[in-house]
Amino acid sequence: MVTLDRNEEQTRRELINPKLRERGWTEDLLLIEQTPGGADIVEGRAVHRKGRTDYLLCIPVASGRPPVPIALLEAKREGEYPTLGIQQARRDGKLHFVPFVFATNGHLYSEYGEDTRQIVNKNLSLGSFPTPDDLRARWETFSGLDLDAPQARPIIEPYKGGRSARWYCQDAAIRAVIEKIAKGGPKSNRVLLSMATGTGKTRLAAQLLYKLQQAGHLKRALFLCDRDELRIQAMAHLHAVFGDNARIVSTDTPQLNATVLIASYQTLNVSAEDREPRFWKENYPPGFFSHIIIDECHRSAWEKWSIILKDNPSAVHIGLTATPRVIVGGKKQARQTDEEITAHNIQYFGSPVYEYTISDGQEDGYLAQCEIVRRVVDLDKTKITRDDIVKRSGRDAYTGRIVNPGEIEEEYSAKKFEEKLLLDDRLEAMCEDLFAFLLETGTPHQKTIIFCASDIHATRVQMQMNNEYERWCLSSGNKPRDYYAFQCTGNPNLRPPASQLIPDFRGSRNSHYIATTVDLLSTGVDLPNLENIIFFQYLESPIAFYQRVGRGTRTGEPRGSKMMFRIYDYTNSTRLFGEPFESRERLSVISLEAEPAHPRKPTVRVTEGFEIEMIGEGRSVLVNDLPMPEDEYKRMIAERLQEVAPSVTDLRKRWIDPIERRLLLDCLPGGERAARLVRELNDESDCDLFDVLAELTYGLVAKSRAERVASFAHDQRRWLSSLSPAMAAVLNAITAQFARGGIDELETPYLWDSDDVKVAGGLDALASYDAKQIILETKARLFAA
Prior knowledge:
Blueprint: H1 8-22, E1 30-34, E2 39-42, E3 45-48, E4 53-59, E5 68-75, H2 86-96, E6 100-104, E7 108-113, E8 120-125, H3 132-143, H4 153-156, H5 168-183, E9 190-195, H6 201-214, E10 221-225, H7 228-242, E11 246-248, E12 260-264, H8 278-283, E13 291-294, H9 307-310, E14 316-321, E15 326-328, H10 332-349, E16 354-356, H11 358-364, E17 369-377, E18 384-385, H12 386-391, E19 395-396, E20 411-412, E21 421-423, H13 424-440, E22 448-451, H14 455-476, E23 485-487, H15 498-507, E24 514-517, E25 532-535, H16 542-549, E26 564-569, E27 580-582, E28 604-606, E29 614-623, E30 626-629, H17 630-644, H18 648-655, H19 658-666, H20 671-681, H21 689-698, H22 705-715, H23 717-721, H24 725-741, H25 755-760, H26 771-782
Parallel strand pairs: 5-6, 9-14, 9-16, 10-12, 10-13, 11-12, 13-14, 17-26, 21-28, 22-24, 22-25, 23-24, 25-26
Antiparallel strand pairs: 1-4, 2-3, 4-5, 6-7, 7-8, 15-27, 17-29, 18-20, 19-28, 29-30
């Protein structure tokens, strides 16, 4: 009896797993990791997509201890070429921090290893697949680390709470840290991790310290951060793992008996404002800590508080940062400053042992996807001159007196607006425009951060947003809620202080919706349900920009309840999603000469006289860390498709071959996901992807799957009549399957088991036909019209 190729699931179950078991890969050594799956944003809403399933090969080390992942296996359906999965496996293997990747179709396998000079070995018999002992020996030779050695012990220690207590990227990062420490050598006690905001660096740190403690390597640890709010957040994660052995250091309680101490620079008297580190010196003698974790380490490992590291030179110094090594966009001066920041990290710690970017997290579904709405204030395209201000009776913002012309600068660019020149018309127009967007997207009660140019700007925006809200409540009959918009800055005179406002902003569902800030909320603060990030602030630094964007990437509380957030960009800050540069280890020090002192010019306020127009620049989606308008996204896909399939005939020929179709989709920017996104954008969910791409690229009128089936039944009557009546009936039943699910339905081995096909004649109709050939011919004719 003729059978079709096994699909991926069957191939794994019937071919791959039995052969792996013969080679010693028992079920407990095959670890399945599943990602939540990211989202595509279609017409302002998040559309969830299926997550990725990865199969890791693990080696046993010690009885009662979890096995160690060292390889990734990409399984493909029986009919696909065995090297097809290597490209994907290489990317996924790097994310899992495993040096070996394999791809197989159940008969042959291919492999790529970091120990083989990146050469792909292909067409190897699966019956000769490496055993666990083979891969362990190979891994130990490559890494230079004996897994039985005491220094490797933390690798095999279980997590507090089991596997479910960590994400795969956190596990990979922890193994990378432990490996570097265990190998010894120069800088082996200095380790850098670069992971995007929202990927759980503090939770990772807690589990890392736990594994070190269980292995007997942890004496006493210090978790160091730069603000009280971050200290409280860190305590929540560390206390969950260490209980009362994790404690917060206060100015009068050094917590000398705790295993894990959580402290801020200010508490230890080692911040830039402290004249001398008395609290530190009086309570923590040299060598007191065995491990020091520096949160947001780019901020000052080389500043005054470096005394902590110098007093503990034998301790393991672990730097955590969300600042990527590859920085994007920015002007020369800001780029130089950002390069120096990241270069300091690399110079002190060495290159990151593991990196996980925003785009990685969004692709996997651990981070929320974002939609970008760009707006332009027409006034910002011009400069405001001294004469413009004099004509409008500019006043001192603090005294109200009309300023003399000599006190006014010759001209003000948009980057000085709201710092040196306050424009009431501009501010009111921007706030009115933003509030309208909140209403358009559902409700004004959305958790939102507005990044402002200065403290006084944050005050003014907060007041204007409250005015917009009060007017809306009055017109709609809604009762105003408390603290709708509130200022949250580092101003010491702010009441209530920011430290009291942030918890309500994070947790309250009935108050504290819009926070106006400058930079206080730009880093570290965990705001999982944040829905909008607003740029009223001009930025030049890519690092500052990415830190602000990172506030929105968390996926909600409970986790997964938020799949997207929005960026409303009024200052073209999203241009910093631009071309990358990479920091290197050594850079010359930037010398900044002090400017000569000048008499202070007043902050000028113009209350009215400017006509403001808001200009929309469309909506964008993030594609590989770059914002791309929807039309541009479609154009890019069409251009790439035309390169690999110059005509619709070429597309049709490749489309009906499963392997060729997969290769074609994989070469598109964004892969098959891109084609599915275009289908959603075009509202063509009833079409096969063939029609979506043919319409986009060659201008064909897209047919629904049902229309294609109807055309097939009519246009192929002569061909169908040349077949046996049973075969013709079976093919009509089979094409009905296509109408329900697309071309994939014609390639499943379960096709012949459907009730409609069985009633028509099923496999018995194939008596004198080749099953593969008749299905191929059917697909060609189905897409011919």
